[in-house]
Amino acid sequence: EQLVESGGGLVQPGGSLRLSCAASGFPFSRSTMRWYRQAPGKEREWVAVITSYGDSTDYADSVKGRFTISRDNAKNTLYLQMNSLKPDDTAVYYCKSPTYWGKGTLVTVSS
């Protein structure tokens, strides 16, 4: 089982990024998937969840209305579109299957 995040980087406040998570080695299309993040010096926190068919999503209050989780089951890929980014969004972002964590991708929001 493998999860590989990509798409992180440095962005100015108010900017956008799209994270991707390429999945392999497990039945991705039948798995609920989640994004988490961990800011420097803080505990890892849940960000968003999407059901296996993508018919239901939910978000942490801190990102609701700014972030969108989606998936492409044909490509075994999970996404996180992040808009209106704030410095407080600076963190390592991780995708998670029911049983496995990716290694994360760093997002830095700074002017």
Helix content: under 10%
- Number of alpha- plus pi-helical segments: 0
| End-to-end gap | 37 Å
Compute the CA-based radius of gyration: 13 Å
| Neighbour order of strands in the largest sheet | 2-10-9-4-5-6
- Write the H/E string, N to C: EEEEEEEEEE
Q: What spatial form do the alpha-carbon principal axes imply?
A: globular
**Major beta sheet, specifics?**
6 strands, mixed
Uncertain segments of ≥5 residues (pLDDT<50)?
A: none
Fraction in beta strands = over 45%
Descriptive report:
- Strand 4 and strand 5 form a beta hairpin.
- The protein is mainly β.
- The protein has strands spanning 2-6, 9-11, 17-24, 33-38, 45-50, 57-59, 67-72, 77-82, 91-96, 105-109.
- The mean pLDDT is 97.
- It has no helices and ten strands.
- The chain is globular, with a radius of gyration of 13 Å.
Feature tags:
111 residues, mainly beta, 6-stranded mixed β-sheet, 4-stranded antiparallel β-sheet, 49% strand
Compose a concise summary of this entry.
This protein has 111 residues and is mainly beta. The chain contains no helices and 10 strands. The protein is globular, with a radius of gyration of 13 Å.
Walk me through the topology.
Blueprint: E1 2-6, E2 9-11, E3 17-24, E4 33-38, E5 45-50, E6 57-59, E7 67-72, E8 77-82, E9 91-96, E10 105-109
Parallel strand pairs: 2-10
Antiparallel strand pairs: 1-3, 3-8, 4-5, 4-9, 5-6, 7-8, 9-10
